[in-house]
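Technical note accompanying the year-one report. For the benefit of new consortium partners, we illustrate the data format agreed upon in the data management plan: each record pairs a sequence with a structure-token string. No post-processing was applied to the example shown here.
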Amino acid sequence: MDLTLWNYQFRIIMLGDSTVGKSSMLKRYTEDRFLECINETVGVDFYVHFLEVEPGMMVKLQFWDTAGQERFRSVTRSYYRNSVGGMLVFDLGNRASFEHVREWYEEVCDHVMPHSMIFLLVGHKSDRESDGERTVSTVEAEKLAAQYGTPYVEASSKTGENIERCFEVLTRRIYQGLLSGEVRMREGWDGIKSSVLQAQQQLRSLQDTEQMQEKKTCC
């Protein structure tokens, strides 16, 4: 990918129990496809998408789709620190997955301290309401989101409802956080990257290499 095609890169990690539909959300968003059956994520999967947050400002989104099973936690924890955004996903028809959101949130915060991550809470599989399978109300989900200071969105990968909105809301919050200083680029951190800085680093690296070659030639 030509670095001039994007201005910033944001790394976002998908968080939540197994089977809440994290992979389905990413499939719908990046490929506009819905698959009834998706194999459970083993470890971490990667997705990439591009979003123009304002005219002329293109963001490359790199998504880390984490496995929700406990046996993979040691693997997924290693990715927390290099993420600037976290999408906390639960299944509106699975109350246990909603109750576990707090555990996911606290675990991530513990691992990224003293820095912070920008979150979005998502109630997934909103299509279940029409089938009478909903077990978590909008009111209690919004209450939890308010405790974390994060927006709340209900969405469905099956119907496509609000899927784009989920990713756009989180991306724009990260972008605004970058502009306001809430989040900052740090050396050695991959949560946010700037194509301009990368180009400058590549140029300096090239110049250093050329200088070394010149010194060897002189010797």
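Partners are asked to follow this layout when depositing records. The helical segments are 22-31, 73-76, 95-99, 101-112, 138-148, 163-180, 195-218.
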